[in-house]
Amino acid sequence: MKPSPARLLNILVPVKRAVDYAVKIRVNPQQTGIDTNVKHSMNPFDEIAVEEAVRLREKHKDAVKSIRAVTIGPPKSVETLRTALALGADSAVHVQVPEAAPSPEPLAVAKTLKALIEKHNAEASKDGPIDLVILGKQAIDDDMGVTGQHLAGLLGWSQATFASKLEVDVGKNEALVVREIDGGGEEVRCKLPLVVTTDLRLNEPRYASLPNIMKAKKKPVQTLSPSDLGVDYTPQLETLKVTEPPKRVGGGKVANVDELIAKLKEAGIEAA
C-alpha cells in the first residue's frame, strides 16, 4: 500500500466572469465603459488555472486534499463557479456584490483572496491550510495582470508568474515552474506556499461533461459579502471616458520609390 504524503495540498483557484472572448466589444452610449449586456463566460486564463489544479490532483491523487474556486461578482457570477465545479473543483466561494457595482480593482481582489485564505487557515483543522493559489495571469476585460503579484506580496508567499509548466513536489514542499519570458522560458524553483499565474501554453482546458455538470449543482457554494471579509471595494481609480479606437484608413499602392517619397511628404513624414 502506498503511504500517504506527510502533508495535503489545498488549492484555491480564483475565477472571474468576463465578457466572452468571442464577443465583439462595443462602448456603451454613456462612454463610461463597454456594453456588458452580452454573453459572459469564465475568463480564459482562469479556465487554464482550474484545469491545472485538476491535473495536479489527477497526478497526485493522495496529496491534493481539495480544490476550491472563488469569484467576486454579482449574483450571475455563480454560473462561473458552477462551471469551475463541473470542471473538477470540490467547493466554491462567491463574494457577492450588487449587479450594478463596478468590478473591484486588482488590489481589492488580492485583499479579498488574502482574507479568504486567512479565514480558511484559521478555521482549518483536518483539511489543512491553503498553500497553493493558481489564477489566470490576467483578465481579458481589463488586462491589468497584477492580481497574483499583489496577493503574493500581501501574503509574503513565493510567486511564479506567466507559468507555462508547473510541477509540484509535495514531499519536498516545493514547485518547479517554467515562466514565459521574452525569447524563451525561465525555470524557477519555489517553496510552498505559492501563488502561480497561468499563461496560455500551460495546458488546454477540458470540456465539462454532462454528468459533471449535473454533479456540480450539488457541490457546496458559500456566499459571503465584502464586509464579511473586512474588505472595502471603494474604487481608487476613476475612468474619465471610454471611446472606440479610430477607424483604420485603407492603404494605397505606389508605382515606384519616388512616388512613395512624395506620398510620405504629403503625410508630413520626412526622411531622416
Gyration radius (Cα, Å) is 22 Å
Quickly give the CATH architecture.
Answer: 3-Layer(aba) Sandwich
Q: Looking at CATH, which topology would you report?
A: Rossmann fold
What's the CATH H-level homologous superfamily?
A: HUPs
Which spans of ≥5 residues are poorly predicted at pLDDT below 50? none
Strand order of the largest sheet: 9-8-7-10-6-1-4-5-11
**What percentage of the residues does DSSP assign to strands (E)?**
25-35%
Description of the molecule:
β7 (158-169) and β8 form a beta hairpin. The chain has 272 residues and is an alpha/beta fold. It contains six helices and eleven strands. The strands form two sheets. A nine-stranded mixed beta sheet has the order 9-8-7-10-6-1-4-5-11, with helices on both faces. The chain has one domain (9-234): Rossmann fold, CATH 3.40.50.620. α2 crosses α5 and α3 (106-123) crosses α4. Helix content is 26%, strand content 26%. It has helices at 44-59, 78-87, 106-123, 147-155, 210-216, 257-266; strands at residues 9-14, 17-19, 40-42, 64-73, 91-96, 130-136, 158-169, 174-181, 184-191, 194-198, 221-224. The model has no long low-confidence stretch (mean pLDDT 90).
Question: What is the secondary structure topology, with strand pairs?
Answer:
Layout: E1 9-14, E2 17-19, E3 40-42, H1 44-59, E4 64-73, H2 78-87, E5 91-96, H3 106-123, E6 130-136, H4 147-155, E7 158-169, E8 174-181, E9 184-191, E10 194-198, H5 210-216, E11 221-224, H6 257-266
Parallel strand pairs: 1-4, 1-6, 4-5, 5-11, 6-10, 7-10
Antiparallel strand pairs: 2-3, 7-8, 8-9
Helix pairs in contact: 2-5, 3-4
Domain Electron transfer flavoprotein alpha/beta-subunit N-terminal: 32-233
Subcellular location: Mitochondrion matrix
Family: Belongs to the ETF beta-subunit/FixA family.
